[in-house]
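During the first year of the project, the team set up a workflow for recording each protein of interest as an amino acid sequence followed immediately by a discrete structure-token representation. This format lets reviewers and collaborators read both layers of information side by side without switching files. As required by the reporting guidelines, we include two representative entries from the current panel. The first entry is reproduced here exactly as it appears in our internal archive.
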Amino acid sequence: VQLVQSGRGLVQDGDSLRLSCVASGIALARYTAAWFRQAPGQNHEFITAIFTGGRRTYRDDSLRGRFVVSRDDAKNTAYLQMNNLKPEDTGVYYCAVSADDDLGAYDYWGQGTQVTVSS
């Protein structure tokens, strides 16, 4: 099983960026897909998730307005669209999938994608 991420970028304050997470070895349609961020010197923090039925959840409302999680199960791919990026969004972004809906534990993780937002 692999989750392969793409979309690494060095962008400027206010730019947009889309990250992709392509799954192989599993049927993504059976999994909740989530995104995490690890800022420099910080632990992983949950950003957002999309459940198998398409329902979404976000860490807080400030992210809901700028970040959009989506999935294309036909392509076995999850996406994170990030708009109006800010320097504090800098970090390594990870996708993860879980066979459960409780967001407590994840079965597989992507390799991480560095996103740097310059002011």
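The second entry, processed by the same pipeline in the following quarter, appears below.
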Amino acid sequence: QVQVVESGGGLVQAGGSLRLSCRASGTVFKINSMSWYRRAPGKQRELVAIVIGDDTTNYADSVKGRFTISRDAAKNTVYLQMNSLKPEDTAVYYCAADLTIDLWRSDWWGRGTQVTVSS
């Protein structure tokens, strides 16, 4: 089994920063990509940022220039550094890991961490 666990959410004022962490652990696997999604109240889930392989990254337009995704391959951990936070960034943030286990590819999700940005 695989566990994907996020941490680092919280309450911050607009303009502030937070760093989210997500670690995948468990059975032996290969990480194809790790990503951060978010779901704001009343809205659909959206992809925020993704790191493919070791260093190919992509971001939602709404966070470009403010958020940075990075990966520590040795720790099977991905980070999301969020700067210049806005109230519209308020959401539950979910980590997703695209893994290959014994030749089978599958997605594994964390339970989410709340980020609240006050104006």
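For the second entry, the following points were noted during internal review. The chain has a mean pLDDT of 96. The longest strand covers residues 91-101. Both points are flagged for discussion at the upcoming steering committee meeting.
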